[in-house]
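Case study.
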Amino acid sequence: NSKVIQTPRYLVKGQGQKAKMRCIPEKGHPVVFWYQQNKNNEFKFLINFQNQEVLQQIDMTEKRFSAECPSNSPCSLEIQSSEAGDSALYLCASSPHFNQDTQYFGPGTRLLVL
Amino acid sequence: GDSVTQTEGPVTVSESESLIINCTYSATSIAYPNLFWYVRYPGEGLQLLLKVITAGQKGSSRGFEATYNKETTSFHLQKASVQESDSAVYYCALGGVDTNKVVFGTGTRLQVLP
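After joint prediction, the assembly is written out as follows.
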């Protein structure tokens, strides 16, 4: 079973508020991914890191999200100004290698933007 | 682009019946993607069920099987005799493409009746 830890499990914010969630990857996993799963169960890749460095991110993430994976601290994903459409399950995954390997998922943070 | 299409749920079967959940994929970024089945049990996080990285090979776990068929670009999940504890949402996915993120299907909810 995965040992990826995500907090909080649930997050409720008003529109325009910041929403921040955290992820502790499995020990020894240098690669971290964030996904958004919407109410239609569609997954959207948001951003990934190798150690502290951003590898790829989509436009939405670059413009509206702030994400980091500092050394010796949890990774975080923060929406700067929440919108109703941001309501979703945010999944963090980690992997021991970047290329073609299994990802281990946390339980997710369910965000509701009122 | 890369995509995964799977059986729309919910799928309802009785205990000890056989099961097949269809999955087909399109991978334009890489000729031989890795193929996965992930499962989310009620109240739990997404976890890997099985993974196959070589075309023609079969993966198996917990009584489930899936064969990587490159000719039909399929990776159907099968089980000869389901149990009530198999009730969950099953996600077909492909990995190792483009940015090495995982591309998921939208999931198939399975309900096994006692």
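Observations recorded in class. Chain A has one helix and eleven strands. The CA atoms of residues 29 and 96 of chain A lie 4 Å apart. We will return to this complex in the next lecture.
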